[in-house]
Amino acid sequence: MKLRTASGNLKAQALGSSSIARYIAARRREDPTPANATSNRALAYVRRATKLGAQQDPPLVLRVPHFEMLPVAEPRQGVVTHEDYRAVRDLLTRYARIALPDCPLLVQRHGKPVQDFEKVWTAACTAAKVPAALFHDLRRTALANMIEAGLSEKEAMEISGHRTRAVFDRYHIVSERRLREMAGKLELHLNSKETSKAEKGAVH
Question: What is the pTM of this model?
Fold first, then answer.
């Protein structure tokens, strides 16, 4: 349901907890019911608009109501190992692989959209014995690969197209191996400082 459809001619000054609750109830009656995160994004747009109105001089909005956000699930942490990725990739039909030519469609066959991609992906994952892998996990996997390859988080965000740090953090899952590597680097750095301090003391 679009915000304009839900709000109708509702004025900003009339916006309150009851109208917000009615909007949430209307979204939950939709079939299929949208995820809570989807409703939260719509509420965030309205909250941002009312705050901007309140910041004007003179204020266009005199009171910004409280927006109670809906609970959302913890971000998925699935990543696909390179071995599993290759196993799934090699079992996909050629048209179901990510398109590299100059084509506006991510998954295409002769320039036309593929309608049964999810079915093909699921079959390939099952055959490769990685049934829990989701296609969307590849974006998270790409981020992990970029960070482990030595790219900065800013560079990874620019390549992946993440516009906000909050969304990037939901995708960027630091592996245990990466944490151990960072801990090892920190230990080496601290040890070098201690060594340098001891050497300076010995000179004096």
Answer: 0.41
Pair 137, 78: CB distance under 8 Å? yes
Task: Give the number of other CB atoms < 10 A from CB of residue 23.
Answer: 20
Please state the separation of Cα 115 from the chain's center in Å.
24
- C-beta separation of 156 from 174 below 8 A: no
In the chain, the amino acid numbered 13 is Q
**Which one, of 68, 71, 24, 33, lies nearest residue 47 by Cα?**
68
SS3 (DSSP) at 116: coil
Angstrom distance (rounded) from CA 177 to CA 107: 33
Burial of 139 (0-12, 13-18, 19+ CB in 10 A): middle
Map residue 113 onto helix, strand or coil: strand
Cα gap 152→157, rounded to integer Å: 9
Model confidence over 121-155: pLDDT tens digits?
A: 889 999 999 888 888 788 778 887 887 788 887 88
pLDDT, one tens digit per residue, over 29-77 is 888 888 888 888 888 888 998 999 999 999 988 888 888 888 887 767 7
